[in-house]
Amino acid sequence: MTVEFKKAVWDDAFSDDGSLECTSKVALDTLGQITLYATAHQAAQFRTHVFLVLVFPNYARFMRWDRSGAIVTEKVRLSNPSHVEFFWRFNHASPAARGVDTTAREFPHNHPAAAKAKRSLNLEDHDRLFHVQLDTRGHTYVFYCPTYMAVGSPLGRSTRVFKAYCVETGKLVLLKDTWRIVSATQSPEHMIYEQLKKHGVRNICTCKEGCDVLQQCTKTQDSSMVKRPSPFRRLQHYRLVLNEIGRSLSDFRDTREMVTAVRDATAEILHRDISSGNILITATGGGLLIDWDLCKMLKHIHQGQAHTEKTATIPDRADDLESFFYVLVWIGLRYTKHGFFKSALTDMLHAAFDHHYLEPRKEEIGRKSRCASPTPSKFLVYSMSR
Question: What is d(CA 175, CA 279) in angstroms, rounded to the nearest whole number?
Fold first, then answer.
């Protein structure tokens, strides 16, 4: 649990007059600060939720964060014994109630499989191992640290990917730990892999197993203080195991291998989450597309079926193809040899990928700046010809 002390009441990020958030600069600084604390806390540990306490000269506020949102109390006077009761209850609560993911535990260093797992994962003897078990087959997966983390926010799916050692089979696998969106239009990813295989989609991983982590679902959306219908999404902790591991797209041996991997990753199904982190290079130099939990069959789009993750326009396969193009541009600019100076490259990357602005409707727009910049496409032709 994080406890943050503030000297002045105007540092308070929240208001009890009905507006909830304060908009002054110091208040927004506090909001950014505690958001960073919640993000770091959940990124550094295996957590289902975290608690945070904001303390001011005469009162305090208590917060609970999970992957759906945050709940904050009204002012609790320091003279009120309830805040003492909170700390007493927190101290006596179970690890799960305090937000610890009790399904991810340290793997005993004296376990018969520990030494082999460390050799397979290329670890040192002093490295700490962790393990999880999925409820489908009862297999134990041992891992060290994630090879990929998408934990830049305290909210959302918080996907982590591990190279893991299966104790029962003695093989290395890819373990994905995420918080999936619970929706009637979105299936768990292992079921999506079954459909992809049924439809003969090529260049995808083989799914070994996947399942929800029982009793680990977000609670913010169910708070009695949230207006109905709730604007908060329900997210369910979920794990998936794939048989293929592959290499990161940024670890290509030459530009031919990079382009081949991206070409192989294209599919007749709308993926909706194309990124460099979701394309893997196989041992033979081909490509695999992973992270299918937001995908949608094109026929469902043409039939007008709703989807929880809405976009500004009706999605089309052209959107995925455009994303593949910008992945090529990004990887090419970042990881190939070219004649751009560092300062020029920094400006180019910012203009092409990071620049955004607010429309009058307060919607963030960034795509127009990419489309208006011809430099990346010119670079792509230059780089691929080398």
Answer: 15
Phi, psi of 125 (to 5 degrees): -65, -30
Cα-to-chain-centroid distance, residue 31: 21
Q: Give the angle 202-259-190 at the CA atoms, nearest 5°.
A: 30
Q: Tokens 């759906």 belong to which residue?
A: 68
Q: At which residue do the structure tokens 């550094």 appear?
A: 44
Beta strands per DSSP E along 107-159: 130-133, 140-143, 148-149
Which residues, 6+ apart, have CB-to-CB distance to 162 below 8 Å? 141, 143, 144, 145, 146, 147, 174, 175, 176, 177
What would the pLDDT profile of 79-130 be if each residue is shown by its tens digit? 999 888 999 999 999 999 999 999 999 999 999 999 999 999 999 999 999 9
Q: What are phi and psi of 43, to 5 degrees?
A: -80, -30
Q: Which two tokens stand for residue 94?
A: 């179970």
With CA atoms as reference, report the closest residue to 68 among 178, 219, 185, 176: 219
Who's near 262: CB < 8 A, 6+ residues apart? 249, 279, 287, 324, 327, 328
Q: What is d(CA 254, CA 262) in angstroms, rounded to the nearest whole number? A: 13
Measured CA to CA, the distance from residue 374 to residue 363 in angstroms comes to 24
Where do the H-state alpha helices sit in 78-138?
Answer: 82-92, 114-120
Q: Residue 238: enclosing H or E segment and its boundaries?
A: strand 235-242
